[in-house]
Specification:
The protein is mostly beta strands. It contains no helices and 15 strands.
Length: about 160
């Protein structure tokens, strides 16, 4: 599973390879680092990166993740998009429980970067689901008026190139 985050203006890609224990890689530009998280409880545990092991605490919130690591606390903002890898749904999950107000595309549509694909209403706010790059909408999982749970995969997208 692939997720993209932004911290201090830099974009990071996290590829999860295994859930128990959690293993994967973190990439920024061309630099990639393998990691392993040994969870303890309530989002706390130890992270192993190379030969270093550090305690951590993680709290997911709408729109991102708070991480305390090596005595410092960071907020990682989830970013849109990121089709690729084995899971083409990444980046197109409902940000919170809500209702699909508008589906602006059809399956098979070619779209441009930034084009609105869906509009959701959650907690009396509208959330625009936008294309992260030029590409094709390959599957719609919900239609207008549908109620969706937090994290529900809204659509499948394949980036050009």
């Amino acid at each position: 599973m692939r997720q993209q985050f932004k911290w201090n203006g830099q974009r990071y890609q996290v590829d999860l390879e295994q859930r128990t224990p959690l293993k994967g890689t973190i990439a920024q530009d061309e630099e990639r680092r393998a990691f392993e998280l040994a969870a303890l409880n309530d989002g706390a545990g130890r992270i192993q990166v190379g030969d270093r092991s550090e305690p951590y605490f993680v709290k997911a919130v709408a729109g991102g993740v708070w991480v305390t690591l090596a005595g410092e606390t960071f907020y990682f903002e989830k970013t849109k998009g990121g089709a690729g890898g084995d899971d083409q749904h990444d980046g197109f999950a409902a940000p919170m429980p809500g209702k699909v107000l508008q589906v602006a595309v059809a399956e098979g549509d070619q779209v441009e970067a930034g084009q609105v694909l869906m509009v959701m209403e959650a907690m009396k706010m509208e959330h625009r689901i936008e294309a992260p790059a030029a590409g094709t909408v390959t599957k719609l999982h919900f239609g207008e008026g549908d109620l969706v749970d937090h994290g529900a995969h809204l659509l499948d997208f394949e980036a050009d190139g």
